[in-house]
Write a structure and sequence with these properties.
It is built from 3 helices and 29 strands. The protein is mainly beta.
């Protein structure tokens, strides 16, 4: 699936379906020729489809705000229009049209950012008003940009040059430029924020070196070498929730995982022969050519996973399941691979393979929420309930607030927790007095 005359072969939806993890990697979204799909990632390394729009609209971009009901959608039929929807209610809250093709959409609990080739539009997530437009940005045909998940450090990073790997950092709350990073000598290919918004990972089009910076201090913290044999196209960078691991996918079959260890104390012994080599390089850096010293000082992959097939765009996430750390890789072929990530690193073991979207029609008796409409219908007509054109401003604000705040509890249900399951009491056959206030059943909280 591709945008008609829009993204090139390196684009976000080139050659297949669009896939993306949400901000905290608890769910996965996918856009296909039939609509968009939402999947929950279960603790047992499984995947559960929780919604399928079945709108008949070829969806090229879709993103979900954490575990809320708010989704942002772009279709192939209208590549310049953004739809904001409450998927549980089946309502279109609002839509916005832009001057050019939408290349990326980024969300956190405070802002929604729409990326065009030469501009960025910042919306307030609560009422979808455009707060600021960054105009005349360097040409960015791949839509490379990233918004920090943390609202306290709500930073937006995007390329500051089309010739060099320069990163512009913009404060999306105070709406001012924060700083500029000189990250690479060649143009940027991928960016990623840590969950706390303090670290930014960068990769260039050469794809051999990945760097991690502290923001806004602009300090280079880590430098990793993905490989030395060939240049590749980095497709995705992703931090773990703890910020100690960084994963990278490319157009090859290998997914690399790097460990972000804190610098050792000066009096600490080096760790193994690599530690001795690093110490020797540091001590003799003045006697080696700069390029040689840089290569020897760069870190190597802590772990790696081999994909069964290459050539598909892939996004990656690092999560913690019941059995330990997991490396999740979703591809534009509509497949999710689940790997075990051992504490000692090394080769990751493939545990499960999930086919996200089947070509066949839903089986008889499928009760998953969806909307069936004929192909070619308008997107607003593909949604149940009232459309954005028929909502008042107060209704639209109420719908946005409901969509943003409707995050279901994470984790397994606890049978002992009255918030999940109110206590059940047998009826008294001969009650002589009212039950004490502290023994009365408590109603279940509203969903």
């Amino acid at each position: 699936m591709s945008l008609e005359g829009g993204l090139n072969t390196e684009g976000s939806n080139a050659g297949g379906i669009f896939v993306q993890f949400n901000q905290d990697c608890t769910s996965l979204v996918a856009g296909s020729s039939s609509g968009y799909h939402l999947f929950a990632l279960t603790p047992d390394d499984g995947v559960e489809e929780i919604y399928a729009s079945r709108s008949g609209q070829d969806t090229c971009l879709v993103d979900r705000l954490f575990s809320s009901s708010l989704v942002a959608i772009v279709t192939v039929a209208a590549p310049r229009k953004l739809y904001v929807c409450h998927y549980k209610r089946g309502t279109e809250i609002c839509n916005y049209s832009y001057s050019n093709t939408i290349l990326a959409v980024k969300l956190n609990r405070s802002r929604l950012v729409v990326c065009l080739e030469e501009s960025l539009h910042i919306h307030n997530i609560r009422d979808m008003r455009i707060l600021h437009t960054i105009r005349d940005t360097p040409p960015n045909p791949r839509g490379v940009c990233v918004l920090s998940p943390d609202v306290e450090r709500c930073y937006l990073a995007y390329p500051g040059s089309s010739a060099l790997g320069e990163v512009q950092i913009f404060d999306a709350v105070h709406l001012n430029a924060k700083c500029v990073l000189s990250a690479h000598d060649s143009p940027l290919a991928a960016l990623a924020w840590s969950m706390c918004g303090r670290r930014l990972a960068t990769a260039s089009e050469r794809g051999t070196v990945i760097r991690v910076f502290a923001v806004p201090e602009r300090t280079r913290l880590y430098e990793f070498r993905r490989g030395v044999k060939r240049c590749v196209s980095i497709g995705c960078l992703a931090f773990s929730a703890c910020g100690q691991l960084l994963a990278a996918t490319s157009n090859t079959e290998t997914v690399h995982v790097f460990r972000l260890c804190e610098p050792a104390r000066d009096d600490a012994p080096p760790d193994g022969w690599l530690g001795w080599l690093s110490q020797a390089v540091t001590a003799g850096a003045g006697y080696l050519p700069g390029a040689v010293a840089d290569v020897l000082a760069q870190g190597r992959a802590f772990a790696a996973a081999r994909l069964p097939a290459s050539g598909h765009r892939a996004v990656v996430a690092i999560t913690n399941a019941g059995g330990g750390a997991r490396l999740l890789v979703a591809t534009s072929a509509g497949v999710l691979y689940v790997y075990a990530l051992a504490a000692e690193g090394g080769e990751c073991t493939l545990l499960r393979t999930h086919r996200l979207i089947e070509d066949a029609a839903p089986a008889h008796g499928d009760t998953r929420p969806h909307t069936d409409v004929p192909a070619g219908a308008s997107y607003a007509g593909a949604l149940r309930g009232r459309t954005a054109h028929h909502m008042t401003d107060s209704e639209r604000a109420q719908e946005l607030g409901a969509a943003v705040d409707s995050s279901p509890p994470r984790g397994a249900f606890d049978l002992r927790d009255p918030a999940h399951f109110p206590p059940m009491r047998a009826p008294h056959h001969a009650p002589h007095h009212a039950p004490a206030p502290d023994t009365a059943p408590q109603p279940a909280p509203a969903d």
